[in-house]
């Protein structure tokens, strides 16, 4: 499945990403601002006038658009119970999502609507207070457990705050029940997964770059000769230092670690396997097991999109045991480190390469 977002600040796009996180759905993601696919997966009369998040289904089934439709599809696909109470719960969740869209999202776009504060009697304010009043006697919006309705509610409220349509002090001091629900949502594993995914996508697409990582990976992989002579010139000619960075990484081993080549190689493999799959979209690396005679180190060079390390790296379970040092491509010594790790086959600086892993 591929999700085609309007942009990463678009509420509908964020709600679909939240639905995918809630139901643990794997997907590819791309931006196609201004494009709305028809149900047949083709551009039609609405493509240029109805921008909306859309989805392309696997197996050639087609495409359709709209955050509520997509969220409902994911819900039906992953919650297939047919008991009356289960059907009601899914319909109730959909009803809440429609309410958030029609009364909060669309309602906030009215030019007459200003920021909702204490004492405001606008329709938007009434709707927000109605949700708060409902939550006075309900822990969650639907049933007795966290549902997609709760998550979409929290994201929608955050959106209203971000566009200056809801006062944060009013929310915290007066809308106590709604504030409590939002805290509950943000403390959940589902929200953590959604937030991490959104941050990763932002780091990958926020700054469009002329440097295409997939082209570099193909250039590197297809080289049958001398990497330094045939591949590195392409990298230096096309590298975008405004949106990409190189890092030297070293594992901070304990005194009794990395004594065996096989064990150290397995440690490196395990480290790489624990990266989120999406990290490949914004990274390339050559990580080596260096050393010999029962003394080994894990060291390598990463090429990563973004001005700083993305959450995919900083939230890795073993991040704290590794040191990442940014390299300066204008510095001759740093440039040599990059070339050595990307190109050397036998040794670097007189230290043997016992094993090498190419992350691409």
UniProtKB/TrEMBL annotation:
<protein>
    <recommendedName>
        <fullName>Elongation factor 1-gamma</fullName>
    </recommendedName>
</protein>
<dbReference type="InterPro" id="IPR050802">
    <property type="entry name" value="EF-GSTs"/>
</dbReference>
<dbReference type="Pfam" id="PF00647">
    <property type="entry name" value="EF1G"/>
</dbReference>
<dbReference type="InterPro" id="IPR001662">
    <property type="entry name" value="EF1B_G_C"/>
</dbReference>
<dbReference type="InterPro" id="IPR036433">
    <property type="entry name" value="EF1B_G_C_sf"/>
</dbReference>
<dbReference type="GO" id="GO:0005634">
    <property type="term" value="C:nucleus"/>
</dbReference>
<feature type="domain" description="EF-1-gamma C-terminal">
    <location>
        <begin position="197"/>
        <end position="360"/>
    </location>
</feature>
<keyword id="KW-0251">Elongation factor</keyword>
<keyword id="KW-0648">Protein biosynthesis</keyword>
<dbReference type="InterPro" id="IPR036282">
    <property type="entry name" value="Glutathione-S-Trfase_C_sf"/>
</dbReference>
<dbReference type="GO" id="GO:0003746">
    <property type="term" value="F:translation elongation factor activity"/>
</dbReference>
<dbReference type="InterPro" id="IPR010987">
    <property type="entry name" value="Glutathione-S-Trfase_C-like"/>
</dbReference>
<dbReference type="GO" id="GO:0005737">
    <property type="term" value="C:cytoplasm"/>
</dbReference>
<feature type="domain" description="GST C-terminal">
    <location>
        <begin position="86"/>
        <end position="211"/>
    </location>
</feature>
